[in-house]
Amino acid sequence: MRKLSYRHKRRILKALKILGLTALILTVLMVFVLIYMQRYIVYTSDGAHLDFSRNTLDIPLSDGSDIKESPDHGLGEVEIVYMDEAEATEGKLKQINGVYITTDMLRNNPKLVLEGLKELDNTTAVMIDVKDRIGNFYYNTEIAGVEKANTAALDEIISYLTRNGFPMIARIPAFVDSNFALAHHDLSLKIDGGALWVDESGNYWLDPENSTVLSYQEQICKELSSLGFQEVVFNDFYYPTSGSIVYTSNLTRTELIAAAAKEVESAFIGSNLTISFCTTDTAFPVDSNAGRIYVPNASGANVDRIIASMKDTVANTTTQVVFLSDSRDTRFDAYGTLRPLLMEASVDIDLPTPE
């Protein structure tokens, strides 16, 4: 076999170096192009495609300031009723008891849900999960660019509740919204390299410090108020503790969430809409004179301990603490309690089998 000369080996090595350098440059260029093109990627149920007519910075619901001039975007003029100071502070919150409806109930047994509600007195408070953690809205929202589930069932339920004067509460996941995160990368939590951070359930999160994200939450609240809901309860209102998230804020996570809660609450001070939070954090910085804390998955044995730990964070535990539980433990009776509707129905009323 003929051996390569030293000169030929040098030429081959030089060519390989040039090819390697060219490949590196092309790779870097492709990475920058992909990062830049992300803003033009639109995700739908059919997959992802490029749309150069808009980008992820063009969010029609950023602050609502341009809605009047662009009636085809966002919600239009959503009216929030504001009261005078005396009305806003005197007797606004009362102890509530009632039922809650999950998105699973809406998907699997919408007819049974409606039949169950028809068996209840209209003084019963009803809390509904109107949006899931993927980002699907279960009512016929007018918010532009969002995904909807089968909205007819919840629209009918909302219509029944409003016609009959039920106290209505909406619960929404605040910062877990995979659809919105995929459509707006710049507003989402990321890891090194720019990819979106994903939680253990496979969902993407929005950045709680971003003002546009908070404006988005406020605009959802305005729409829900216009539909007749008197209260909005935020679930997943926290900053994940994962060390893989790129964290650049000068605030601690606790300070950041406190500031976010205050900003959303302040948008509705003096209005007819109560802003509350569903959390197991008994030190959550809820407005001590306005909103409520909803405690999920509580047991009767923990009621006294939970209440004692909230003495310094809420002004009136009787009216501002609501337990979510399927238990009939009498230790819940002194405080607000919501129980799952269909479990309530299975105990108290005879409902037809869903078709």
Question: How would you describe what is shown here?
Answer:
With 355 residues, the protein is α/β, with parallel strands linked by helices. The chain is built from 11 helices and 10 strands. The chain has helices at 6-37, 85-89, 103-108, 110-118, 152-163, 178-183, 211-226, 253-266, 303-309, 317-320, 341-348, and strands at residues 41-44, 47-50, 97-101, 125-129, 168-173, 231-235, 274-278, 293-296, 321-324, 336-340. An 8-stranded parallel barrel has the order 3-4-5-6-7-8-9-10. Strands 1-2 form a two-stranded antiparallel ribbon. Helix 5 links the parallel strand 4 and strand 5. Helix 4 runs parallel beside helix 5 (152-163). The chain is elongated. The termini are far apart. Mean pLDDT is 81; it is low at 34-49, 51-77 and 344-355.
Keywords:
355 residues, alpha/beta, two-stranded antiparallel sheet, disordered C terminus
TL;DR?
This protein has 355 residues and is an alpha/beta fold.
Q: How many beta-strand segments?
A: 10
Helix content: 25-40%
The total count of helices amounts to 11
> What series of H and E elements makes up the topology?
HEEHEHHEHEHHEHEEHHEEH
Distance between the termini: 81 Å
Strand count, sense and barrel status of the largest sheet are:
8 strands, parallel, barrel
Structural class: alpha/beta
